[in-house]
Structure formats: structure tokens, C-alpha cells
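Q: Here's a chain of 135 amino acids. Please give me its 3D structure as C-alpha cells.
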Amino acid sequence: MNAVTSKPSVLFVCVHNAGRSQMAAGFLRDIAGDRIEVRSAGSMPADRINPVAVEAMREVGIDITAEQPKVLTPEDVQASDVVITMGCGDACPFFPGTRYEDWELDDPAGQGIDAVRPIRDDIRGRIERLVSGLL
């Protein structure tokens, strides 16, 4: 845990911060509530969240419409206990003591809802395992 907060913090990173990282953050907020601090960011953020990702999450009762893609900063990484990259080979600033994981996930960009549902469900399973490991 970082010195500022007693609860663990997780940062999800993908290039556009519009699909995978936003779905992961939505699941983590939903499953962990306020027990885990959740951040997401991208190295080249899109203008808006992928509407198909929004639709896929709405199907499971999670609303991510209020989220906005954000720029990844070294401060985001430094403030996080766990940094999870989404199979996009992002160059993430490295800080000792931070746990890094790379989740190989298909990119939902340009995909229809039928292709995005399995990605969403894969992310949910990974988030459930992450939460049980952190709490």
C-alpha cells in the first residue's frame, strides 16, 4: 500500500483508455466498491470511450458513460500499487515496489458487440481474481 492511503490502488493502462481499461475499471469499482482505489489511463487517449464497450458493460448493469479517456502520467503509476497493462505493449514508467501485470486481451476497438462480450467476460473473471488477491 502506498503511504497516502491505506487501501490498495490499481491502475489500468491501454493505448486509448477507451475500451479494455475502462471496462476493467468499471468492474473493479462495481466489485470492490470503495475498498480499492481505481484509476485508468492511456498513452494516446481517445476522444471518448468506445460506445460498444459502454453497451457491453450496460448489459451487465455497469454504467461507464461518465468516464473519460485520460492521459497516463508517471504520477498515476507512482501512486498505484498494481499497474495492469492491457496487452498493448505500452511503455509504462517503472517504479520499484509497484506490481506490474500484463493482461493479453483482444482490442475491442472497431468490433461489434458479439466480439466485445467475450472480452468483457474475460476481464470480469480477471478482476474477480485480482480483488480476491488484494482484499
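Q: Can you summarize the key feature?
A: The beta strands are 9-14, 37-42, 82-85, 99-102.
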